[in-house]
Amino acid sequence: MTPSNDGPTTTPEAASRLADALSDRYRIERELGAGGMATVYLAHDARHDRRVAIKVLKPELAALIGSQRFLSEIRTTANLQHPHILPLFDSGVADSLLYYVMPYIEGISLRDRLTRDRQLSVGEATRIASEIGAALDYAHRHGIIHRDIKPENILLPDGSALVADFGIALAADVAGTRMTETGMSLGTPQYMSPEQAMGERALDARTDIYSLGCVTYEMLAGEPPFSGPSAQAVVARVMTSDPPDLRSLRRTIPDHVADAVHIALEKVPADRFARAADFVGALAGSAPAPRPRRAPGATASQRPAATSPWARLAPYGLALVLLAVAAAGWLRPARPGPVSRQRVALWQTPLSSIQSPGANSLAAQAAIAPDGASIVFADSVGEHRGLWIKHRHATDPIPMAGTEGGVAPFFSPDGGWIGYFTPDGTLKKVPVTGGGSIALVSSDVIGLNFAATWLDDGTIVFAGSGLSLFQVPGDGGTPTRLAADSASGIFITAMSPLPDSRGVLYTGCRGNCVMGSFVGIFDIAGGSARELVAEAAGAWYAPTGHLLYADRAAVLLAATFDLGKLELTSGAMPILEGIAPRRFAVSRSGTLVHWLYQQDGGAELVWVDRAGVAEPLDSTWRGEFEYPAVSPDGGSVAVSLRERTTQLWIRRSDGTREQLTQQGVVNWRPSWSPDGRSVAFSSGTATDSGGDIVIRRMPVDGSAPPELLQRHTFRLWEAELSRDGRWLLTRSDESGVMAIRARRLDTDTMLRPILVGGLYLQPALSPDGRWLAHVATIDGQSDIFVTPFPGGGPSRRVSRDGGGEPRWARNGRELFFKSNGMLMSVAVTSGAALSLGTPRPLFSTAPYRGARNHPQYDVAPDGRRFLMIREPPVDPRGSTIYVENWFTELEARLASRPAR
């Protein structure tokens, strides 16, 4: 459900006025609810064929704001794009009524949940509070204070929190003190901060933190911290009383959780957390704060996790990304001693620029030594693009000689060797102490994804060709395929060993990991693989007898695991919030390593000229962008935006932007029609034969729903429309190979083969339709080739030292591609024969996102600029958190948290 306010409804006349004024776009179905500031209606959006909620401001509030001011200021709220914020679809003025449009969310609110259950488990309450906190932190950094955080404004459509009513927050901010002159006020007494209750105008983020503290208190205690027979009585207690100590109401609440809530509820704003992120970190026990004042008789135990001297490294929501996987060795009991955390500097370049063309983006890029004394990671700095090692007591990491191009490192059980992969797909090892690398397995046996682990018996298990598991002695030799049914048809993206070489835990996905992943287990003795946990990733075995893994809600979970039977024997218990799947690592000594993502709103779209000078496309728009495409006239941009799912967005020349697609797990990689009126794109939904990827086409004005353009036996991961609109090109993954196929839209009914039987991807057809640029992998190296289209001649190699992401200039006289961290240009003369000039570099692509499977940039129609995705800057202070003796904390959390 979409939230509504209890109270009197609007008059039938007002509802009729609204329905008449919006009849060309929305069909009003019924009123959902009303309050002192707005009325909510359920409506049908005719343009996008979807149900929406329309919130109409009360006339007296609309009069205070004014329509021009409302429409101008509402853009700020409309720009909030966060997985835990209910977005705004539209806004406007209808017959003098000010309104804005939100998604209609079916499900329950937090108020409904508390009415039904009264109290939530500690784990669920802190998870929901952390998700709300992440949303608020994002909004605060964009200059927006909510002012009315309460259970009614928190939606739980699938169990995850969605914060609603930022539009009302904007209205209150714009209306200012004139609201009080009409008797209107924003906020509910039980959740108002003292300064808000006193009518102070200059409210900041700390008022929302107080309200979130009240909501968290209610989730844990079953009632708000303050109540009374009237609003005046509640406000009086807010101003003069301390809330009952949570530990006195519910002894199972951990001290650090109770402390965090009471700090958020301090009367004086300066005594609260300065940022919502700090509150979220304190809830997780990872970001301590001064002890709150406690009610008489209250006590607090001193837990190491709550008293550690590190501060403000708050992992919250989906913003904390824990990086480092594939470290060898299972987890042994923790050494005695307190838990300690340090912040260390590792990566100096964004991870996307580290990925080699042959390494899947899900491959691990770091590993921690079994004794926790060092971290090895892949980076590209100066002349060294390969592995680096950071020792515990060293100030800076140092390059490992002889590991050029190395990715996906993993340690031997004794910590003496590091295994890794080279870009051409060779498995190698190098001594930790330095020395020459030794090749173990050639590239013709290695699979598409680089993943491996080292077992206690000295053998290495790796993901090989044919989507199967292989085993090879740690000293080299002939690889052995681990049973025909080991993991056939599965992409393996991460591995970790079980004790005594009993088996391997792995993260797997069928087809492509954008459609979801699972945790599986391979039983070496039994020679078989099976799925353990659906919708999960990044599994490790802990000596506490638990399987650790992360789910899609970014929660680290622990489930009891029988090592003898290799089976789960209990439900999962939440351990930590904000854990990204496949991206956490623990050493056998109990050291945890994770990467703190700096929450700056994500990547941004930028125009980059031929000299490398960048200018933002839209400085107010940030997010997890993928695969931008520029319209034929250069005025609009289609781009994928990854949030809870990946959807297509359109940004027009006037600066407006709109989410184009609404359903499906993935809608991405757009290609414009020649007239600029529609885009074709790869699309996967739950209705496509259980998760097929097909090609759809949709008008960019949203006037019609997506239509099916092409389906194939295999999933279609790339689509490109020719410049004349006559051809559709596709790329499909077909049982371990990649094929490029095409269809004439005016005559063909089936795809015809263009390049099959090898590793072909990223098709790019020249403007005249005569030449197909593409990527082909030969002898382990991916390069750019140009082939006559639709066939009939040999391919020409364009790049000689690796290359990817080909794009043609709109005039057909240049071909661009990426190679070794540079954007390259090749002069082209096309006619009866093709003439190619010498590739020359334009500018460094290090700051920009890259991909192996489809270009992550596009070319402006004049060929002078390139639309690229600039990664968030790497924090020079260091973004890796190194946690010693983490098992002490793990055992405490296992003892205090209930199973799901």
Task: Give an overview of the whole structure.
There is one protein chain. This protein is an alpha+beta fold and 900 residues long. The chain folds into four domains: 1-106, Phosphorylase Kinase, domain 1, CATH 3.30.200; 107-150 and 187-317, Orthogonal Bundle (Transferase(Phosphotransferase), domain 1), CATH 1.10.510.10; 340-600 and 876-896, TolB, C-terminal domain (Neuraminidase, 6 Propeller), CATH 2.120.10; 604-870, Neuraminidase, CATH 2.120.10.30. The chain has 16 helices and 57 strands. The strands form 14 sheets. The chain has a five-stranded antiparallel sheet with strand order 1-2-3-5-4. A hairpin with a 4-residue loop joins strand 2 and strand 3. Helix 3 packs across helix 6, helix 5 (122-141) packs antiparallel against helix 9 and helix 12 packs antiparallel against helix 13. The chain is globular, with a radius of gyration of 28 Å. Mean pLDDT is 80; it is low at 1-10, 174-185, 294-336, 352-363 and 484-488.
Largest sheet: 5 strands, antiparallel
Low-confidence stretches: 1-10, 174-185, 294-336, 352-363, 484-488
What is the CATH-assigned architecture of the largest domain? 6 Propeller
Alpha carbon gyration radius: 28 Å
- The helix-and-strand class reads alpha+beta
Count of DSSP H/I helices = 16
CATH topology of the largest domain: Neuraminidase
Q: Can you tell me the CATH class of the largest domain?
A: Mainly Beta
Shape: globular
- How much strand? 35-45%
DSSP strand tally: 57
**Domain unit count:** 4
CATH H-level superfamily of the largest domain: TolB, C-terminal domain
- Summed over residues and divided by their number, the pLDDT gives a mean of 80
N/C terminus separation:
25 Å
